[in-house]
Records
---
Amino acid sequence: MAIPQKPPYHLTFGDAVDVWLRHWNGEYQHHIAASYGVNPGRVNDVLKARKHAGSEQVAASKRRAA
C-alpha cells in the first residue's frame, strides 16, 4: 500500500522577497531552504534570478523602508 505524499512546496513571489532579505542578513541558503522545506537549489534559483524576477527589487525597497 502506497503512502500518500504531500505535494512539494513551491516558493512564492513573497517567499522570494523574504529569501533576499534573509540572504542579505547573512543567513545561509541551506537554512533558508530548510525553513520552507525546499531543496537549497530552489533558494539559489531565486538568488540567481532564475525564478521570481523582480523579487530582488521589491526586497531592496522593503529593506530601505525598514
---
Amino acid sequence: MDKNKSIIKYLIDFLDYCEVEKGLSSKTQENYTRFLRKFFVWLKDTGQEALKPSSLTPEHIWQYKVYLSRHIDPKTRKTLKKTTQNYYLIALRSLLEFFAEKDIPCLPSSKIKLAKDKADKEIKFLKLEQLSRLLSAPPLSTIIGLRDRALLETLFSTGLRVAELAALNRDQLRIKDETQDIETAVIGKGSKIRTVYFSDRAVKALRNYLKERKDLDDALFINYRRGSAQSASSRRLSVKSIEDIVKKYVKIAGLPVMATPHTLRHSFATDLLNQGVDLRTVQEFLGHSNIATTQIYTHVTNKQLRDIHRQVHDGRKF
C-alpha cells in the first residue's frame, strides 16, 4: 500500500480494511463511504484535496466541524442535527484509526471530539422501584400477560435492542424445569455476534410463557390477533408491536417516564455500572463497537456518584 497518497485516495484501502479486518457489513461500508465523502467534498471546496494524512492538523478538524455545524441539508432546509454531525465525525475518526493501524503518520483519532448535544445527557432509564412496577404490570392469568411479562423481563435481563428481541427464536433457548439461567448468541448491528444472558427471573417468566404455547411457530414472541392462527406466515411480533407493548405497561404501571424498549436497554446498562461493572464489560454486553458509544451512560452514573458524595461527605461534621 502506497503510504504517501492524499487522504481522499485512501477510501478504497479503508473500505477493504473495514471488510477484511473489521468484518463490517456492506451496509456499514456504504454509510462510511457516504459520510467520508462529505469530508472529501469539504477538502475539495477549500482547495485541500491533495492533503496527506501526515499534514492533517487539529485546525483542519475544527474547520470541518464548523462546516458541518453550518451546513444546510438540501432536503430539510435546516442545519444538521448534532447526532448527524457526529455520524460524519465518527466516520472520519474511523479513517484515522485505519491510518494508525497501517502505520501511516496522521493525527491521532482521539483529537476528533464529537459534537455536544444537551440531549446526549438526557439518558432515560428507570429506577429499580419503577422497574419493579413495570415488570409486575402484566397479568399472569392469560397467555398474552405471560408473554408480555417474559418480554419485559427479557428486555431488562439482556439489554437487547428491540430488533434483536423480535428476531429471537424458541430453539435458541433450551429451558427445562430445572434451568435457572441461560445464555444465547444474537446477531446485532453490523452482523456482529455477541452472547446475551438471561437471569433466573427472565428464565422463570419465559418458562411460564412457553409452557402455555400450543403453536409451532419458530418465533419466541408471537402475536395473538384474531385470525393469526390461520395465517401461513409467522406470527412473530414486529418491532412496532413490541414498542406498543412496552408503552401499554408503562401506562398501566403509572410511570412518570414514557419508557420504550430502548429505555430498558438504558436501564440494563445503568444498573450494571451502578453495581460496579466496568465500562468495557458493559460495552461487550451491549454489543457496542466503539467504547465512546457506551460512555454516554457515565453521565448518569457520574451524577449519582456526585449525589452520594454530596450526601455523605458534605454532611460530615467535625
---
Amino acid sequence: MKQLIARHHHSIGEFVKFMLVGLLNTGIDVAVFFLLTWLGIVYVAAQVVSYSCGAANSYLLNKVWTFRSCGLSYAEMVRFVVVNLISLGISVACLALLHDVTGLTLAVAKGGATACALAANFLGNKLWVFR
C-alpha cells in the first residue's frame, strides 16, 4: 500500500512539473505563433513552427527535470518525436475546427487546440517516451 501511495505521489509531482514546463512551452508556442501570423504566415504553418519550438524546449526540460531520464537515447528521441507529431496533429485539427468551422477567434481557437493536445502529450511522454 505504501508503494502505491508513494507512486501516486510521484506521479502527481511529475504532472505538476509537466504542467509548469508546459506553461513555458505554451508561452514559447504562443509567442512564436502570433509573431509568425503577425508577419503574414498562414496560421497552419505558424502552428507547425511554433509548436515545434515549444516541443524542443519540452524535450530538454521534461527529460532532465520532470521525468529525470538519464543519458542520450536515439529511441527516446524517436518516441518523443512520434508523441509530439500526434499531439501536433491533434492541435492543428482542433485549431482548424475551432477557427474555421465554429468561427472562434484565432486566439480562442489556439487556446482550445493547446488544451486538446495536453492529455495525449502527457500520457505519451509519461508512459512511452521517458518511462
---
Amino acid sequence: MTPISEHWDKSIREIAGEAALAALADANRQGVDGLFVGNMLSGTLNRQENLGALLADWIGLRGTEAVKIEAACGSGGAAVRQALMAVASGVMDSALAVGVEKMTDTVPATTTGGLATAADSDWEAAQGVSFVALNALVMQRYLHEYGWTKDDFAPFAVNAHGNAMHNPYARLHEKVDARAYKKARMVAEPINLLDASPTGDGAAAVLIVPVDAVASNGRPRITIAGSASATDTLAIHDRRDPLWLSAAELSARKAYAQAGVGPADIDVFELHDAFSIMAALSLEACGFAERGQGPRLALDGEIVPTGRVPIATRGGLKARGHPVGATGVYQICELVEQLRGTATGTQVDGARIGMAQNIGGSGATIVTHILKSG
C-alpha cells in the first residue's frame, strides 16, 4: 500500500508502480503472468487511459498481459476478483491486482462530476444530484423509517478515526468524538463532514498465486476462500427497496457458501463506509444486524477491534481515505495485515477469517471476498 494523501509530485503511474513493486517484493517475485488494474477516473481526471499497458511498462513487465478494470468505486475489488479468476481457472499461474486513483489534481467540481458518473446518468446525474446527495436521500429515508436520530451514527466515525491513528497509510490521523460529530459541518442533510469519506491519491496491490505455490516463509498463508460479485440498478429509485443492498446480500451469500462460513464466523469485516449510512446498510445486508438495526451495533460498541463485529480496523474509507478505484485492494491488504497478525494498534485477537466488501456506485456493483489464515 502507499500512503493516501495529496501526492502533487507523483503521477498516477508512479503511485501505482510503488504499490505494485512493493507487492512483488513482499512475495519475493520478479514477474507475473497477468496484471489487472482497478481504476475509475483516470480518463476523466488524469487524461490517461490504457492503464494496464502503462503500468506494465513502468514496472518492468513490458509484454505482460494487462488490462484496466472499471466498476466505479468497486473497481479495486473487481480487479482482485478478475485476477483470482484468471489464476483459479489455470489460465495464469500468477496475477497482480493493483488499485489506483489520483483524485487531487483537479478542482472539486471536476472530481465531484467524475464521481457522479457512478450514478445513473439519465435519471440521477442529469438532474443535478451529486453522489453525496444520493446517499443523503437514502439516510433521510432510513432515519424516517427506523426512528434513529442522526447522532446515533456518530460511533461509526469515532471508531474509524480512532483506528486510523494506528495506520501509517491513512489519510486522516485525527481522533474525533461524539461532540465533534455533532458539531461537524453539514454537507448534504443529514450527511455531515464526519459521515463522509475523504478522497485522495493512493494505490494498493496484491499478488495472487495457486495455494500450493505459496512457499513457507514463516508467515501465515492467506487464502481467498470466497469471492463473489453481484449487481443492482444504478438508479436508487429503480430498486424494490432503496434501504436494502440486495447486491451486498447476494454477493455475501455466495461468498459465505464458497468459504463454508456464516456471519458469526467472520472475525474482521472491512466494509465500504464511504458514508456512515452505507456502513449500517452493509452490516444489515450481510447478516450482522437485523434490518434497520445497523446503528445498534455501533452504539453498543460491537464494531471496535475488541467488539463482536470489528469494522474499519485500519480506518476504513472514512479515515484511511477513499481513492475510489484503489479502495477495494486496500481492504484486501488490510485483511492480510489482520490475518498475519501485523495490524499494530488495532489487531483483532485471534483473527483467522476476514471479509472485505467493495461497493461501486450506491450499491450497483458489490464485490465480496472472504480470506482465511492458515
